[in-house]
Design brief:
Blueprint (H helix, E strand, L loop, with lengths): L3 H20 L1 H15 L1
């Protein structure tokens, strides 16, 4: 069972991860490379 505190930190971790992906071009470039490889 997940407590409210754990859920709160879990959501904050997801939001932080999403923000880091949005502001950091390196993971986005990796995602684009994976998309281009899968499109082949």
């Amino acid at each position: 069972m997940i407590t409210l505190e754990n859920r709160h930190t879990f959501l904050r971790r997801i939001i932080f991860f999403a923000n880091s992906l949005r502001h950091n071009p390196f993971p986005r470039r990796l995602l684009n490379d994976n998309a281009s490889l899968s499109s082949i």
